[in-house]
Amino acid sequence: MTNSPIVALHGTPAVAGGNAPSEICHSPLAPGGAHVRSVRDEFHGDLLEVSMGPHHPSTHGVFRMIATLDGETIVKLKPVFGYLHRNHEKIGENTTYLGSMPYTDRLDYLCSMTNNWAYALAVEKLAGQPVPERTEYLRVILAELTRLLNHTCLAGFLLQDTGASGTPLMYAFREREKILDLFEALSGSRMMCNYQRFGGCRVDASPEWLEAAKRLADGYNEFLDEYEALITGNEILMARTQGVGVMPRQLAVSAGITGPMLRAAGVDYDIRKVDGYGVYPRFNFRVPLGDHGDTYDRYMIRVLEMRESIEILRQAFAQLPSGPIMDPKAKIRGFKPKPGEAYGRIEGPKGEIGFYLISDGGANPYRYRVRPPSFINLTVLEDMCLGHSIADAVIILGSIDIVLGEVDR
Amino acid sequence: MESLEQIRDRLLSRYPGAELSILNNPSPSAQHSLVVGGSAAREIAAFLRDDPALQLDFCSNVTGVDWPDKEIVETTRTTIPDPAGGPPKLVEQKTKRIQPGYLEVVYHLYSMALKQGPVIIRMRTGNRTDQVTLPSLTPVWRSGEFQEREVFDLFGVVFDGHPDLRRILMWDEFKGHPMRKDYVEPDDYEWEPTPHDEVLAKAKAHYPAPAAPAAPGANAK
Amino acid sequence: MTDSANTPTPLSDADRDELRRQGILLTSLEELYNWGRSHSVWPLQFGLACCAIEMIAASMARFDIARFGSEVFRPSPRQADLLIVSGTVTKKMAPQVVRLWNQMPEPKYCIAMGACAISGGPFKQGYNVLKGIDRYIPVDVYIPGCPPRPEALLNGLMTLQEKIRGQKLTGPNAPRHLRADDACEYPVPEFGETDLVPPTNPEVWQPPTIVRPDKP
User: Fold this and answer.
1) What is the span of the domain harbouring residue B31?
2) What is chain B's mean pLDDT, rounded?
3) CATH at B120
4) What's the pLDDT at C5?
5) Last residue of one domain, picked from the residues A62, A80, A98
6) Which is it for the CA torsion A397, A398, A399, A400, positive or negative?
7) Which of A62, A110, A161, A169 has the highest number of chain C CBs within 10 A, making it the mutation to test binding with C?
């Protein structure tokens, strides 16, 4: 039995016998309707079709993938979506502009602050709404804290997927709680912050809050050192991740991959630098790039990005001006932008999160669309998994960093 | 970066028969878009991707928009000279016209190589019922693969040339396209403490108010 | 002093404490059984949406669900006692949730965590959102919040423990798993053209009746 040839585009190998007669046997321990099925094929003997999910501990929620295996090697893998499709866009079209702000929290529920910002940015573009300088700085501070939070959790989950059950995730969540305490002190809610407004933000940060945030940012490098000493040089992690799930540059660009995944493939594209939205052009920071595009690179890029985030935070705390946090001319009630459309995007922790809005002059958007980074990053899941074993597919999926609230919306 | 007019003119000189027009965006974002006819769309997309001055290699966002049939009332005023020789009469005539609806697919293109963008292209279907086929741009930009499937699922645009066009978010047995403006949800209303607007209408249908009791004193006699 | 000569008087708590001090532990089988079960409720490792993150947070160092004997999140429903429905149940997901519930062995309990699992929550108006998991499976404890804090989950768990401790082993009020006529299997809904078929399980859930107060 030889490995089937890998066809580059869409990764559908020639062997996958979709219409071949198949016998279905239900595995007694496979929960949630998962089944294992053998697909008989005249030339290659038995291929095994395994349905992973939607209830599976390592699919980060209710993601499902159907993998066709040749022995233990994946020859075909199709993701199945929609198990958390909760009609975000339809609800957004039936709600006022401001009414959608709390819903954006629940898109990527680890990073509500960046979702808020992306949405506020799109609406501000649509309405031509300026933002006070202090708010711009606060937005940067909160977005970078969110990036720290997301990347820390991702490292924990990735390690959990490799089998380091418990300990790294415990460390990650310890730090996450510290950041969530800050979010809670500022916005009143741990996860669903609902903090940004069109032309400003909801409440101002007190000096004590800023002091606490500064302390956290200053101490974060120490945590990262400890965390990296535990993980980065670990031989098992290297063996499991290096050379696994390599994504070529060409494919990454064509498939619209964004965020740390794209930069791990060596493409220099960071929207903070390219668009220069907010006050990012005022900060001095570097964009880490990967060499190999494998899972280890994707992990390392995130660690390096966290270190740059700490630098940005330090500069932001030093430069933070005083002043109003809301544009005095901004309308909260009866907000009706003129007809037109706008697409606003920012560099979220998972990639480019964008909002596309069409206004017909009414109080609700005519069309409300979210450009979800982790959904589009999943496009290449099959290409990265082909030729690897199913245990590697779990790690590759973990390194893509998906959140199902955003994948299915 | 070139303006949209320059891009259009260059495209027209390259593809003389192509249907191209610019849709102006009056909002402060000023993101104007290029409406591309379906016939040559894939060639034009490949040109936009490969042209050295544009290099729009990154298709960021693909989305559908539903524009249902619109009733337009036009008022025409004609003056009829009075046959009796008096002052001419002004007659207003109102004509109703149905502007046929269509589905629209919007692509937001950026260039990762030159770090510029966006260029927005849109394609429109003939109507909303039987002429809903558009060429798929997935062979040009792979990132359209899942997003076009989503547009197919939620809006009902059929992409010609898409490698794997199936429902993506809803289940396979599902009928209808829920993101269309005229989609009617299954009526599974249940009691709500504060019904309002459409929910109030549903509430009234499901829980009609009890018949008004007979006026007191009516049975007294 | 009329009937007490025939029926045994239950020991008062003070008497028991006195005996306990002397090194004598008195208990009933029912109490021991319920005490043991209530402190080893193993949840299913099953996250649906936002609430799942708070569920994970509850099992981590700061909130430490292990204090309540529930830190053993089992990946397989065959080994789990508690289904925490942590997040929005969509119509596409609902059959899988019911199937997971069917695969869990009795005695089993269900916590609806968060507004979405209770009623659909903020996404109630969505075309693909189930308006509460209690339409298909029986729910023991509801935890409101969007999402509930980890403390709220711990409170819900303690409420469930109290409920378990109050269960009678015999008699007409015996819990579901001790009754011979228990159905065990709940019908799994199927995908219809616009909705699930059937849209609810009438044995578990009936639409609420509206009470209109008479106008003065």
Assistant:
1) 4-67+103-177
2) 83
3) 3.30.460.80
4) 52
5) A80
6) positive
7) A62
Please measure the distance between the N-terminal and C-terminal CA atoms of chain A and give it in whole angstroms.
41
Same domain, A108 and A173: yes
Query: CB of A14 within 8 A of CB of A23?
Result: no
Residues A168 and A188 in one domain: yes
Of C127, C193, C207, the CB nearest to B173: C193
Using an 8 Å Cβ cutoff, are A277 and A121 in contact? Answer: yes
Q: Among candidates C92, C133, C81, which has minimal Cα distance to C112?
A: C133
The residues pairing with A24 across neighbouring beta strands, listed in sequence order, are A37
Chains in contact with B, where contact means 3 or more Cβ–Cβ distances below 8 Å, are A, C
Residue B177, both tokens: 């396209």
Nearest-by-Cβ selection for C212 from B176, B185, B210: B210
Of the candidates B171, B176, B190, the beta carbon closest to that of C92 is on B171
In angstroms, the separation between the Cα of residue C18 and the nearest Cα of chain B is: 52
Confidence of residue B70 (pLDDT cuts 50, 70, 90): confident
Which domain-ending residue is among A80, A98, A121? A80
Whole domain around residue A17: which residue ranges? Answer: 5-80
C93 within 8 A of A85, measured Cβ to Cβ: no
Domain total in chain A? 2
Angle A186-A336-B36 (CA atoms, 0-180°, nearest 5)?
A: 110
Q: Which of B215-219's residues contact partners 24+ apart within 8 Å by CB, and which partners?
A: none
Cα separation values, B95 from A378, B102, B148, Å: 51, 22, 39
| One domain, residues B197 and B166 | no
Per residue, what are the HEC states of chain B? Answer: CCCHHHHHHHHHHHCCCCCEEEECCCCCCCCCEEEECCCCHHHHHHHHHHCCCCCCCEEEEEEEEEECCEEEEEEEEEEECCCCCCCCEEEEEEEEEEECCEEEEEEEEEECCCCEEEEEEEEECCCCCCCCEEECCCCCCCCHHHHHHHHHHHHCCEEECCCCCCCCCCCCCCCCCCCCCCCCCCCCCCCCCCCCHHHHHHHHHHCCCCCCCCCCCCCCC
- Residues of C within an 8 Å Cβ radius of B: 91-92, 125, 127-128, 131, 191-195, 199, 207-210, 212
Q: Are residues B200 and B160 in the same domain?
A: no
Whole-prediction pTM:
0.85
SS3 state of residue A293: coil
Cβ distance A32 to C96 less than 8 Å, yes or no, reads: yes
- Do residues B202 and B108 both lie within one domain? no
Closest-CA residue of chain A to B27: A340
- Same domain assignment for residues A74 and A96: no
Whether residues B117 and B133 fall in one domain = yes
With left for phi above 0 and alpha for psi between -120 and 50, is residue C23 left, alpha or beta?
left
Which tens digit of pLDDT belongs to each residue from C73-118?
888 888 999 999 998 999 999 999 999 999 898 888 999 999 989 9
> Is the CB of residue A399 less than 8 Å from the CB of residue A160?
no
pLDDT at A276: 87
A131 and A28, same structural domain?
Answer: no
How much is the average pLDDT of C168-186? 79
Same domain, residue pair A269 and A390? yes
Q: How far is residue A42's CA from residue C9's CA, in Å, rounded to a whole number? A: 78
Would you call A61 and C48 a contact, using CB atoms and an 8 Å cutoff?
A: yes
Average pLDDT over residues B155-179: 88
Q: Which residue has the higher pLDDT, B204 or B55?
A: B55
pLDDT < 50 regions, chain A: 1-34
Sheet with C82-86, side-by-side order of all strands: C82-86, C109-113, C141-143
CB pairs under 8 A between B and C: 40
